[in-house]
């Protein structure tokens, strides 16, 4: 027995609504991956391949490294995740500090990371915004702070020690290389995970050429 015209009409309406919902979801996802001013939002991730110390000597060394905020030198990884987040042309160092929710945080490194710690150093500035899409180009006209900057504690307080800053999960900050200050990276530490001994980080970032910024007042 063939379906009645009314049932066919309802079926067509349901199919149309499903198509519209899928299209709307796709549009929302696409919009969420594009900044209104800076363009594509890139997503990067990393994994610290630390293993939990077992012997007294290993535990003592791990404690000293934590006090001094010095990363353990790791063998080179095929994907580079051991070294940090791949931001622009190089690596931005990150490692866990506290991995207990709801106050998870970690270190971002001003010094170079990667094979033999070769590469340029970073300069940072913090943003009060919670989402990348809310950051505007006018906010990038600000002061940046690099390694061993005498003004660092004024800007970051006790979270600054000369080459690292302690930042919480969800923090947005501006980063630029000391060798190329025209390119600014707006980075959000989106999701921190892992254990008390090693951490994972998923970050989102956009890049912007500061030559396109308005003159600083």
Fraction of residues in helix: 10-25%
Number of strands: 12
Strand order of the largest sheet: 3-12-11-10-8
* Rounded average pLDDT: 78
Separation of the first and last Cα atoms: 78 Å
- Could you describe the largest sheet, including whether it forms a barrel? 5 strands, antiparallel
Number of helices: 3
Radius of gyration: 22 Å
Run of helices and strands: HEEEHEEEEEHEEEE
Sequence stretches where pLDDT stays below 50 over 5 or more residues: 17-31, 73-81
Strand coverage percent: 25-35%
Structural class category: alpha+beta
Overall geometry comes to globular
Query: Structurally, how many domains make up the residues?
Result: 2
What's a quick, concise take on this entry?
The protein is α+β, with helices and mostly antiparallel strands and 217 residues long. It contains three helices and twelve strands. The strands form four sheets. The protein has a five-stranded antiparallel sheet, with no helix packed on it. It has a three-stranded antiparallel sheet with strand order 6-7-9, with no helix packed on it.
């Amino acid at each position: 027995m063939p379906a009645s015209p009314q049932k066919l009409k309802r079926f067509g309406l349901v199919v149309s609504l499903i198509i519209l919902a899928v299209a709307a979801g796709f549009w929302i996802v696409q919009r969420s991956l594009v900044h209104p001013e800076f363009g594509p939002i890139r997503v990067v991730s990393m994994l610290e391949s630390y293993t939990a110390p077992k012997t007294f000597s290993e535990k003592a060394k791990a404690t000293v490294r934590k006090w001094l905020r010095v990363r353990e030198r790791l063998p080179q990884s095929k994907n580079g995740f051991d070294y940090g987040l791949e931001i622009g042309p190089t690596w931005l160092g990150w490692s866990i500090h506290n991995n207990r929710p709801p106050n998870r945080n970690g270190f971002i490194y001003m010094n170079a990371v990667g094979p033999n710690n070769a590469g340029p150093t970073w300069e940072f500035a913090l943003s009060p915004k919670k989402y990348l899409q809310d950051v505007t180009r006018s906010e990038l006209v600000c002061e940046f702070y690099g390694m061993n900057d005498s003004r660092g504690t004024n800007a970051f307080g006790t979270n600054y020690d000369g080459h690292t800053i302690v930042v919480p999960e969800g923090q947005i900050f501006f980063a630029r290389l000391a060798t190329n200050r025209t390119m600014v990276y707006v980075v959000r530490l989106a999701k921190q995970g892992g254990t008390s001994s090693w951490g994972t980080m998923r970050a989102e970032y956009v890049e912007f050429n500061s030559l396109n910024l308005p003159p600083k007042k």
